[in-house]
Amino acid sequence: MTSQNNARSAQRGTTEAPWIRWTLTGMALAFMFLFLVLPLAAVFTEALRKGWDAYWEALKEPDAWAAIRLTLLTAAVAVPLNLVFGVAAAWCIAKYEFRGKSFLTTLIDLPFSVSPVVAGLIYVLVFGAQGWFGPWLMANDIKIIFAVPGIILATVFVTFPFIARELIPLMQAQGNEEEQAAIVLGATGWQTFWRVTLPNIKWGLIYGVILCNARAMGEFGAVSVVSGHIRGQTNTMPLHVEVLYNEYQSVAAFAVASLLALLALVTLVIKSVVEWRHEREMKAMAELPPEDPHTRQTTATASVAVA
Amino acid sequence: MSGHVASLQGTVPAAGDRARRSSARVLPGFNLTLGYTLLYLSLIVLIPLSALLLKTFTLTWPQFWEAVTAPRVLASYRLTFGASFIAALVNVVFGLLVAWVLVRYPFPGKKIVDALVDLPFALPTAVAGISLTALLAGNGWIGQFFEPYGIQLAFNPNGVVIALIFIGLPFVVRTVQPVLEDAEKELEEAATCLGATRWQTFSRVIIPSIAPALLTGFAMAFARAVGEYGSVIFIAGNMPMVSEITPLIIIGKLEQYDYAGATAVATVMLVISFILLLIINGLQGWQRKRSAGSSQ
């Protein structure tokens, strides 16, 4: 009884008076509303300012379609490339000990801290007309900068760490025991990866892929440096938004932007579902009863005996 | 299990090494994955970045110095770093508030609010830029309330700060939130039992325990803000000497085919972001040590 009372008073001591709680919650929600909800709402309101017809007209425009196609193509190349890299990097960093491992991890994170504009610039310095391979590329009539390959390269750079970064801590936490068991029982390396590792990391993998995809489709700064802004050819959706906006075609700009905002919302929904799923699985694992009913019985008897 | 595997191989390494060495031998694919990782990292990141540094070395020192200390460039550093610093400070305060409310207080719709915190990660920066501009311009939903008082929120440094607050918010919330979740209530209970007021407990017990996470969040928000381009250029107004950020200086120089100048300024930014990355790594190490120490 006394211990229960003590616990209750301690509980009271570790939380705030209701009015403080409500004030803080209110302030946090007001801040979120001002900084997150309003900008999101503004995109759709501005896009529909002149009604649905103007909205559809803006989206049906050939240049808008070309931008959508280019954005999808860019993500379709960049995400799988970084997916393969992410799995390979996570495997060698999480499963083995070697010298320079933490340095390698830092290098993988590097693209996150480089300004997108600098990311675009470095590819101009390598492949541009003045760059290392510029003259050779020109002689062979290959265009990378101010063309689609440059856009894809810049996108790969800015989304480089996303998947590796999700997988490395996850695989480190899971350890090597299950894979070792599979190998000792005679599985090949590939079988071990597909049947043991992949099912274990699937949520982290999906999580990384959707974040990587959102950034790949939405990247602006890096792509803007290498694209050359040729309408209908080298404008991705974010660049097309900029062009329309600068031409004072507000409705059209926000209409294309609303598609990107929808992409962001879908990303957030998938991300949340993945997190809840993962949490539920972890909880279910923790609550799993001992597998052999016989053992459970004996431990129960044992605990009764001790009591 | 790893002990069993090691004994199968007939080796008896030192206890601490056992798990590591046995795994290195049992699991295949080390050479393949490390080789691929290094190759891809070199092709995509290291070689292009070294192009930037090598290009910088072709400049003479006076050329370099003149490019990175021109008055217009200096003004852009002041704006970029000043606005990023203010935005990161605001994010620390409100990020802590949001994380605190999400972890400690129940309220309806919490899961949705929690999911929404990541919106700035998911929303393309150009979309955030035009949307914030529409909101804050003199005739916008928010701007109209400030216009009569002569306060301009868009097309000047105010707009830059607001855009950078938007961009940096999730960094602070997402670094502080897990630490608050793991924080042991026993410490707070002990402080209360020893007669501390709630405010004393907060400032003397809770704040010190989340300080590393707060600092990490601050550094991450700051680092992201320094390099940010997309969301800022729409709202900044981009007036030279007043509201022109450093990444825009680089773009401007590129558009005038001044590759040397662009490279010089980019190198300064790259060095600064490298330093910030090292600081963040150090802070994260500190935080890991702190949490490992408290759990023992």
Verbal overview:
The complex is a heterodimer of chains A (307) and B (296). By secondary structure, chain A is mostly helical. Chain A is built from 15 helices and no strands. Chain A is globular, with a radius of gyration of 26 Å. The two termini of chain A are 20 Å apart. Chain B contains 15 helices and no strands. The model of chain B is unreliable at 1-24 (pLDDT under 50). At the A-B interface, helix 2, helix 4, helix 5, helix 6 and helix 8 of A face helix 1, helix 2, helix 3, helix 5 and helix 6 of B.
Instruction: Report the principal-axis shape of chain A.
Output: globular
Q: Portion of residues in helices of chain A?
A: over 70%
Q: Give the number of helices of chain B.
A: 15
Net shape of chain B: globular
Radius of gyration of chain A: 26 Å
Number of helices of chain A: 15
Structural class based on helices, strands and sheet pairing of chain B: mainly alpha
Name the poorly predicted regions of chain B.
Answer: 1-24
Order of helices and strands of chain A: HHHHHHHHHHHHHHH
Compressed to H and E, one letter per element, the order of chain B equals HHHHHHHHHHHHHHH
The average pLDDT score of chain B comes to 86
